[in-house]
Amino acid sequence: MKTVNEMKKKVLVGMSGGVDSTVTAKLLLDAGYEVEGVYMKLHEKPGYHEENFRRVLHVAAYLGIEAKMLDLSKDFEEAVYKPFVESYRQGLTPNPCAKCNRQIKFGKMIEYADEIGADYLATGHYVRHDGTYILEALDETKDQSYFLFDIDKKIIPRLLFPLGEWRKEDVKAYAAKIEALESFATQKESSEICFVETTYIDVLKKHIPVDMPGEVLDTEGNVIGHHKGFMHYTIGKRRGFFVKGAHEPHYVKEILPETNQIVVTPHSALEVRQIEIEGVNLMDGRREFACDVKVRYRTKRVPCHVEVKEDGKALVKLSEPVFGVASGQAAVFYEDDRLLGGGWITTAE
Ligand SMILES: Nc1ncnc2c1ncn2[C@@H]1O[C@H](COP(=O)(O)OP(=O)(O)OP(=O)(O)O)[C@@H](O)[C@H]1O
């Protein structure tokens, strides 16, 4: 009988039908792993899943591996989709990808890896890890570590991210050289939120009335204009509402869902120096520490001091001001290229 060391390690690859997970599966197979693919059906979009799964089966046939479709649409609806709609209803700006990563991609998919006896779970995310911490991707323009702040640290040793060392253009060039995968190299990039086809407003419109004119207030509470409905706005937005006689640009500072009002100010009044977060998830046991924080995906890091409180809350003091911090978004901590964790923003001042 073979010993464990001699046995091939089995890896489950999350295959979306896109170029990244396709190349991921190929690289792992070439590296000597036993590879099996899974396509997760996450939501209802007519024709979408059939097309994606057809692509996954094409890749699987080329690689000579098995690939299954896993219907997780009910789980996705409860864990990601409904909270997304509910957040906007409450005047928050949600981050569905981070929720999906915790509960679905690195939650349900790892459960499925257990079911099929896979040692590892791999995806085409642009991140790396060192066994304890998730690390930023070498291709900084593609780095997705921000969206992984909430995953369970216990599973990190079981994850494989072969593209963490790659640049996206090299991934495409690699696929272009293989006849069976050539069409994947020129495929158009998928949208940032997989279930949003056009805009988030179109998603919300299926569930709640979003076009309902309301008042624009200044920070003293005076009515200074009008807007299209509070769900059209996120903190920091400067367009799409009317302010009487304004000579300088105004930005959304606060959203008041109960009264369908938005509060706007000139830019300087949007400065935030302190943030409170909840649902804190950290990759190590620190309670009080200095690090960098990102308050949005596409934004620069700012040095900060974090103090973890009871009930998974924390206070984040920023060493320089940031603008346009939205409740519901994630504050994500870094130390060099190491992702330390993060939490969900509740208040910013
Ligand atoms: N529906 C799905 N089923 C299985 N795995 C998925 C699915 N969607 C995404 N993944 C996995 O998560 C990774 C990152 O997802 P993301 O949506 O960021 O994809 P992407 O960068 O467009 O990658 P790809 O080119 O593989 O579609 C994918 O590379 C894939 O491994």
From TrEMBL:
Compartments where found: Cytoplasm
Domain tRNA-specific 2-thiouridylase MnmA-like central residues, every copy: 202-265
Binding residues for ATP: G14, M15, S16, G17, G18, V19, D20, S21, M40, G124
Family annotation (InterPro entries): MnmA-like, MnmA-like_C, MnmA-like_central, MnmA-like_central_sf, Rossmann-like_a/b/a_fold
Xref: CDD domains: MnmA_TRMU-like (cd01998)
Gene3D superfamilies the UniProt entry points to: Adenine nucleotide alpha hydrolases-like domains (2.30.30.280), HUPs (3.40.50.620), Translation factors (2.40.30.10)
Species classification: Bacteria, Pseudomonadati, Campylobacterota, Epsilonproteobacteria, Campylobacterales
Keyword field contains Ribonucleoprotein: no
Chain intervals for the UniProt region annotation (Interaction with tRNA): 142-144, 296-297
Active site: C100, C194
Annotated keywords: ATP-binding, Cytoplasm, Disulfide bond, Nucleotide-binding, RNA-binding, Transferase, tRNA processing, tRNA-binding
Chain's role: Catalyzes the 2-thiolation of uridine at the wobble position (U34) of tRNA, leading to the formation of s(2)U34.
Pfam families xrefs: tRNA_Me_trans, tRNA_Me_trans_C, tRNA_Me_trans_M
Protein name in the entry: tRNA-specific 2-thiouridylase MnmA
